[in-house]
Amino acid sequence: MILLIFVWAFLIGGLICVIGQLLMDVARLTPAHTMTLLVVSGAVLGGLGLYEPLVEFAGAGATVPITSFGNSLVHGALTEAKTTGMVGILTGIFEVTSAGISAAIIFGFMGALIFRPKG
């Protein structure tokens, strides 16, 4: 049932966001500390092989939040390390995440040109 896929994606993605919000409100962490903790959590879960089953279960609910970025870093490093050795740890990180980071930079620049932000 396709509706159930959307429900689980919403619940898992929402739970990740609730955790982040609680870290800022209850633990009084700054947004930078919260973001770093979520990225590292995704990296640790990815390194332990626990994030991929979450992605298969929750779909976009697990791939959209910032935790997925940490998982991508570890996944790229481990995949490339298997083929090229220790150098692959660094190159794998850049290979997997470069498209997303490049897109963010390009679209941010285009947005700044179009909308002329003040600040």
Automatic annotation (TrEMBL):
Source taxon at top rank: Bacteria
Pfam family of the protein (one): SpoVAC_SpoVAEB
Keywords for this protein: Membrane, Transmembrane, Transmembrane helix
InterPro entries: Spore_V_AE, SpoVA
Membrane-crossing residue ranges in chain numbering: 6-23, 35-51, 89-115
NCBIfam families reported for this sequence: spore_V_AE
Identification of the protein by name: Stage V sporulation protein AE
Organism of this sequence: Desulfofarcimen acetoxidans (strain ATCC 49208 / DSM 771 / KCTC 5769 / VKM B-1644 / 5575)
